């Protein structure tokens, strides 16, 4: 049941910060004794002043490398942990107060955390959830039928959860999480470990649910397929800071391009780098052309050059002055590649090991 | 108060506990008869072999009756759902329950108590049968079972408060172990508490543990008057209220330290 007006902000986050304190254990017996008698602590800031607001019915991707603060943010928004500073409002509620009305309207699905009872069939768990959320019986049956059919798990409803495959289990988790038709859904890596077909089914379902029910969804995933196919907006966290908030296409439109070029003469990356003025790391031989080269030795290899859009003309001019181009094309950078670059930048910035498990 | 989810949780808890029938039956029988057998051997050694005629005002037959009847109530106080709470806090699985629109402490209790209620029904039937056999009052047996069930709630409430130690220390297993050892001794599960020397009686009287096994057994065997029983029900109500307040306080403070690890 959605209580907010269409188009209004249902999630408002203002300058949220969250830090964690953990003990430092040095290795060996000395470390163990030190921990016992004189524990040392270290502080890690998982979120560093994050602000944004999300509209009702929007499908949002939250991405970032491990330890970037994604799960911490979801935990704050779902009311599991409080922020150290700043303010969050979800459906008009302070999440950490965990008002009953708030809990009735949200769902959190964590791909790595089972919410259903391991030794019971999913059906028993769903019956309990029906009672908890006070879902009228005809509505419950209708929803369960729809969800089980859509996710193709009808025949597994009476099977013990622990006997199901990972994909089937994940689908059951999803059904259990949304049987009460939440207005806001937090999905933390829901397609983790799923095969291509199961992931596709899950994506299709989420798309339909978001469209039909106007539920606001935040999805975290390392699978860029999930983000590209589902999200209309992407938020990127890097070391606890929000570094991008916009359309997924915005990342590839404004970002880098890939120039695919083949020369008449045999050329080395170092030579191309020297002529174009681009770093050698941005030049690589095309995988396709490497395979082709083995077949036809006479044909020269194609190179893929990573560069910014405004560099294309100058680079091409330089190359054409020194070499003979026989084939060329400009490709848009894939979202996967853009995200990879952001992740590698995060690695360079350094992420503390404590952040990894939070 | 909404009963629908509570009934559903009870049903779900029972289904969960009996998912493995053999394990369930073995747990009941094993935990019941091993301590009883030890007690019986002890009383036999003292009275039959050692020649004692009376200990703490109780003869051999009194001891055997105590062991037999206390067995019915010692099965009620058990349940490891307070352990479960501590573990949920430690591994972050508590998050699953915090997201639901129900009280997590109550939810875990109801799911956990379901098999105990089944055992209580079973023990009550055995108690009534014993009543007919040895001329105990059936009414007293019902009253005693009620006190044992209240004891079960107090036992969980104390455990649920202790579980909040996991918010601070993460691992609270040993606290439960110590608590359960104390409970085994001070509940009257191992020996009748009136065997305590007069000067040390205050030790068990200042805890609620005697309400779990010793109290119900005394009432069932007719060794407590109805007035004494009603007084002890009042004491139990006070403990219930005090332990409830302790839960409110400890969980209110502890939740601010919850990290929801593991995901």
Strands, helices and their partners?
The complex is a heterodimer of chains A (358) and B (263).
Chain A: E1 9-24, H1 28-37, E2 40-55, E3 59-63, H2 70-77, E4 85-90, H3 100-104, E5 106-110, H4 122-132, H5 137-150, H6 166-178, E6 184-188, H7 196-213, E7 216-220, H8 224-230, E8 233-238, E9 241-246, H9 248-253, E10 256-263, H10 269-276, E11 283-285, H11 287-295, E12 302-308, H12 312-322, E13 325-332, H13 335-349, H14 353-356
Parallel strand pairs in A: 3-7, 3-8, 5-6, 6-7
Antiparallel strand pairs in A: 1-2, 1-4, 8-9, 10-12, 10-13, 11-12
Chain B: H1 4-17, H2 21-49, H3 60-77, H4 81-91, H5 94-98, H6 104-134, H7 138-163, H8 165-169, H9 173-186, H10 201-205, H11 214-220, H12 226-254
Determine the structural class of chain A based on helices, strands and strand pairing. alpha/beta
Global mean pLDDT of chain A: 83
Q: What profile does the largest beta sheet of chain A have? A: 6 strands, mixed
Principal-axis shape of chain A: globular
Distance between the termini of chain B: 34 Å
Determine the fraction of residues in helical runs of chain A and give it as a percent range: 25-40%
Sheet-strand content of chain A, in percent, reads 25-35%
The CATH first-level class of the domain at 9-105 and 182-252 in chain A comes to: Alpha Beta
Q: What is the alpha-carbon Rg of chain A in Å?
A: 25 Å
Q: What does the main sheet of chain B amount to? A: none
Proportion of residues in β-strands of chain B:
under 5%
The most extensive interface between chains reads: A-B, 36 and 28 residues
Tell me the series of helices and strands of chain A, N- to C-terminal.
EHEEHEHEHHHEHEHEEHEHEHEHEHH
